[in-house]
Amino acid sequence: MPAPMTLTEKILARAAGRDSLAADETVWLDVDVLMTHDVCGPGTIGIFKQHFGEHAKVWDREKIVIIPDHYIFTKDAMANRNVDVLRAFAKEQDLPYYYDVGTERYKGVCHIAMPEEGHTRPGEVLLGTDSHTCTAGAFGQFATGIGNTDAAFTMGTGKTWLKVPQTMRFVFEGKLPPYLMAKDLILAVIGDIGVDGATYRAMQFDGDGVFALGIEERMTLCNMAIEAGGKNGVIAPDKVTLDYVNDRGRRSGSKPYTVMAADPGAKYMFEKVYDVTKMEPVIAKPHSPDNKAKVSEVKGTKLDRAYIGSCTGGKLTDFRAAAGILRGKTVRIDTFVVPATTEVAAGLDTEMIEGVSLRSIFLAAGAKIGDASCAACLGGPSDTFGRLNTPISCISTTNRNFPGRMGHKEAKVYLASPLTVAASALTGLISDPRDAMP
Ligand code: SF4
Predict the structure, then answer these.
(1) Residue 100 CB partners (closer than 8 Å, separation 6+)
(2) How far, in Å, CA of 276 to CA of 217, rounded?
(3) Which of 394, 238, 252 is nearest to 313 (CA)?
(4) What's the CA-to-centroid distance between 347 and ligand 1, angstroms?
(5) Ligand 1 centroid – CA 79 distance (Å)
(6) Which residues, other chains included, contact 247 with Cβ-Cβ below 8 Å and sequence gap of 6+?
C-alpha cells in the first residue's frame, strides 16, 4: 500500500506517471499548461529559439497560453515591443490561445484571465513565468511560477524537473464575518509565518471557512502563497470549483480533468487552525507583506491614495465589496479602480447594488477607473495608470509592498482588503471597515 499523500503529492504523482511519491523526491513531470506574458514571454521565446532552433515548434500549441497584461496602456517603446514579440511568436507557431492587445480577445491580468477562459483544471500541472501563477491552486491543481529558462525548456519538451514540496496545512474554521475577506485571512497567515515561512512548501487551505468562500476569494488565498515563499497554494476542488471549471472550460474545448483530494492520514509538516469568527481586519504595513497589524492598531494613519485592483484585489467580488462601502459617499483621497480583466470591467456595468451599477457607484464617489491590466501593481512605466510617481502613502488591494513595487522607491504601501481600502478612501486615513459598513 502506498503511503497516504497530500493533495499536492497526488497531483504531482499523476504528472510523474507514478502511483505514489513523497515530499523531497525529485521527479520529472508532464506539464499540462504553460502560461507566459509580456514581461517574461520575450525572454522565454528567445531562450527557446536559442536552444531548440530558430524554426523549432512548441511541444503542444494547445497547451501554451500567452496573455499580455503587465505594461499595456503605455507609450513606452520597449513595453510595446515586448507585445510585438509575443504577437509574432503566436502567429509563427499558430497558437490558439494568444489574447492580443487591441483586439476583442484582449483579457488583462493573466491569473484571472486563465480561469475565465477555461485554462485552469483540477488535478493538472500549470506552470507560468510569473510568481503569482500559484493563484490557480484555487482550482485544485498544482500551479507555480518558474523562470524564463525553465519555461523555455517546457516550451520545447512539455516537461519539467521538480522537487516535491512538503505540505503545510492552514485550516480556517467558522463563518466569515461580513467585515472580513480572504485578503485578511492570507495577510494573517503571512504575518504569522513570515515572508519565508513557507519557502518551497505547498500551502494547503482547508476548513469550512475556506469552502464557504466563492471561487474568486479562494483565488486570493492561493495568490498570496508566494508572499510566504510557498511553492504553491492549493484548495481541494468541490462543487463550487467544478461548476466554475465546467462552465468556463467550454471556452477552451472542455478538456477532461481528474478531481483529486488528499488521502486520509496524509502527513503535513505543519498545521495551524484559525477561528475566523475571532479574527479582525488585517493590514500589511510598509515595506513587507508580513509586516502585519490589526487595522484597529493603525487606524488614523494618514494616506494620500487608495488603489483597488490587481490579480489579488481586482475581481468582481472585490469591487462588489468596495462599492458596498463607497455607495452614496465621496472619497477624500485619489482613488484608483482597475479591473483585472475586460470581463471584470464589463461586470462593473452589469453588477448592481440596489439598481445602481458598480461603475456608477465608483464614479459618483469620485474614483477614477482604468483599463483592465496590471496597471500600477508593478509600478511600470511612468505613464502607467495609478502609478506612485512621488513618495506618497497608498493603501492598496495588491499583494506586494516592497520599496518601489508600485513606483517611487520612497512611497509607502499598505496592503489590505477591498473593504478596508474603500473605508480608508472615504476618510483619507486608515479606517476599519466595521465603522463604514452600511
Ligand atoms: S496584477 Fe500585479 S501581482 Fe498580479 S500579475 Fe499583474 S503585476 Fe503581478
Answers:
(1) 68, 83, 87, 90, 106
(2) 14
(3) 394
(4) 20
(5) 15
(6) none
pLDDT 10s digits, 231-274 = 999 999 999 999 999 999 999 999 999 999 999 999 999 999 99
Instruction: Compute the distance between CA of residue 275 and CA of residue 152 in angstroms, rounded to an integer.
Output: 43
What does the alpha-carbon distance between residue 436 and residue 426 come to, in Å, rounded to a whole number?
9
Testing ligand 1's pocket by substitution, the residue of 310, 373, 384 carrying the most ligand atoms inside 8 A of its CB is 310
User: Using CA positions, which residue lies closest to atom 4 of ligand 1?
Assistant: 311
**The pairing of beta strand 125-128 with beta strand 201-206:** unpaired
pLDDT for residue 1 is more than 90: no
Quick: pLDDT tens for 119-131.
999 999 999 999 9
pLDDT in tens, 405-417: 999 999 999 999 9
Confidence of residue 380 (pLDDT cuts 50, 70, 90): very high
Q: Is 311 in the pocket of ligand 1 (CB under 6 A)?
A: yes
Residue whose CA is closest, atom 1 of ligand 1?
Answer: 310
**CA 204, 205, 209: angle at the middle one, nearest 5?**
165
Which amino acid is located at 218 in the chain? Answer: R
Q: What are the angstrom distances between the C-alpha of 183 and each of 35, 287, 382?
A: 25, 17, 28
User: Does residue 49 sit in helix, strand or coil?
Assistant: helix
pTM for the whole thing?
A: 0.98
Whether the per-residue pLDDT at 392 is higher than 90: the answer is: yes
pLDDT at 107: 98
Calpha distance 132→162 (Å, rounded): 18
Instruction: Please give the pLDDT value at position 204.
Output: 98
pLDDT confidence of 100, banded at 50, 70, 90?
Answer: very high
Count Cβ neighbours within 10 Å for each residue of 295-313 and write b for 16 or more, e otherwise: beeebebebbbbbbbbbbb
Q: Grid coordinates in use for 129?
A: 513565468
Site of grid cell 491552486: 137
Q: Rounded CA gap, 422 and 319, in Å?
A: 10
